[in-house]
Amino acid sequence: MKYPEIKNFIDGKFTSSEGKKLDVTCPLNGEVISNVPLSTITDLDKAITAAKKAFPLWSGLTSKKRAEVLFSYRAILKKNLNELAEIIHYENGKNISDATAEVEKSIELTEFACSVPQIISGDIMKVSEGVTCRTEYTPLGVVASITPFNFPNMVPHWTIPNAIALGNCMILKPSEVVPVTAVRIAEMLKEAGLPDGVFNIVNGGKEIVEAICDHPDIKAISFVGSTDVAKIVYKRSTSNLKRSLTLGSAKNHLIVLSDANPDLSATDITASFTGTAGQRCMAASVLIAVGKTDHILEKIIINSRKIKPGLNLGPIISKKAREKIINYINKAENAGATILLDGRKTEIDSSADKAGFYLGPTILDYTNAKTPIPLEEVFGPVMEIIRVDTLDEAINIQKRSRYGNASSVFTQSGGVAEEVAKKVNVGMVGINIGVPVPREPFSFGGWNDSKFGVGDITGKSSIEFWTQLKKITGKWSKQEKQDWMS
Ligand code: NAD
């Protein structure tokens, strides 16, 4: 499968860039499937000019009129679900089932944006006799969204539908590793009737992200990616006095107790660390086994053996990323971790291309390791087991993580579950759930080094992020007496 060379999308048209081109590689077979421009400041300026031109008309519409475009867009997403899943499969490598789930999530996120007119109906208060104050959510202007490789469709939908439904005009900077999906997003938004200039794409990498952070006409930036870059983007954009919300890396701890339902827990834990080949910020990374849990751990290993690279497990995004994960496993092994399941040796299914960047599920047991507890994000289908005697020890290990996206507990005891939920230092907690992200509406966001900025990226708190409140206080009564401060 090959795709045409990627262009920017500016003012409703696909536009070439003068910037250098980068190959886009398919992780399923290592073949170049397209190329993407490293856009220049001139490209960004053009996109911002288009967005500024479109803003008065778009923001001047009623929210219900804007939502009509999102309703049509949702139908188009649904109609093209299979085609979109296929694009994600080719450019990111994830299984068709994972890719389909990602598009389904995008549809739900769009549904939330369709309900914006109801959510932002605002407050009217009779503040004094004859005096009322009403609040209105007003858009910010031109805003930007910078996205990572691991969810080419869903993560852009964390921001695009809400930001535009609320009246903003957006510049999307997709991951240069997976730029094809964004092309279809632009085409579908246009088909849905979105006016030219409201949504624009400027492709590229580090330099264009820095230019976005510096541009005086961009009012707010949302970023999703690794913590190192999230910090750079947060510091740079806020020092330029922009509103900023940047989501970073993760290392999620799952705590399993001996009373947990063995089959359900094993299924969920296996799916959590192997889904999307472990390349998701909500993936299980460390499993803390409290007490006698061998009967559950054995089932996890049995389940994981059924996950075969190329059959029901997609590849790692790049050769380099796979090498990094293998180095991590080698290092753990050298430090004394026992390899309970070795993905380095797993055979690739005969239906898959051997040149794909595959790595099998790997389970490391740190019980006898002469190494400190694992702290780094691995971002692959690797789970590290730590065995402890008490729940307190388990919670304390979680709390030593610098990240704070998610943590889950597997138990049949409500009291234990509530204790874990209360004490773990994360934004999203799962109880007998390996990936604690429910159906929309949901307020997605971690804590600590997994997020910089106030509020969450989806759900109601994103409404606050993409708008500013106008407070209008009026007095129409004829009475002269004022019983308020003036
Ligand atoms: P990344 O940080 O390498 O890239 C993210 C974006 O930043 C891309 O658009 C890229 O072009 C840009 N970028 C890369 N280096 C840059 C630099 N030095 N300066 C400015 N911009 C730069 O992340 P990735 O590899 O695409 O994605 C994987 C990471 O994203 C993982 O760490 C994962 O945990 C994280 N992630 C987090 C969440 C979350 O919700 N917290 C969700 C998805 C992914």
Overall pLDDT score: 96
- What is the domain tally? 2
Q: Identify the quaternary structure here.
A: single chain
The low-confidence parts are none
Q: What percent of the residues sit in helical stretches (DSSP H or I)?
A: 25-40%
The N- to C-terminal Cα distance equals 69 Å
What name is given to the CATH topology of the largest domain?
Answer: Aldehyde Dehydrogenase, Chain A, domain 1
Largest sheet: 7 strands, mixed
What would CATH call the homologous superfamily of the largest domain?
A: Aldehyde Dehydrogenase, Chain A, domain 1
Quick gist of this model?
With 486 residues, the protein is of the alpha/beta class.
Topology (elements, then pairings):
Elements: E1 8-10, E2 13-15, E3 21-25, E4 32-37, H1 41-60, H2 63-79, H3 81-92, H4 96-114, H5 116-119, E5 124-128, E6 131-139, E7 142-146, H6 154-165, E8 169-173, H7 180-191, E9 199-201, H8 206-214, E10 220-224, H9 227-239, E11 243-247, E12 252-257, H10 262-274, E13 284-290, H11 294-305, H12 319-334, E14 338-341, E15 362-365, E16 382-388, H13 391-399, E17 403-404, E18 406-410, H14 414-423, E19 428-431, E20 447-448, E21 451-452, H15 460-465, E22 467-475
Parallel strand pairs: 7-8, 7-10, 8-9, 10-11, 12-13, 12-18, 13-16, 15-16, 18-19
Antiparallel strand pairs: 1-2, 3-4, 5-6, 6-22, 11-21, 14-15, 17-20
Helix pairs in contact: 2-4, 3-4, 4-6, 8-9, 10-11
Bound molecules: nicotinamide-adenine-dinucleotide.
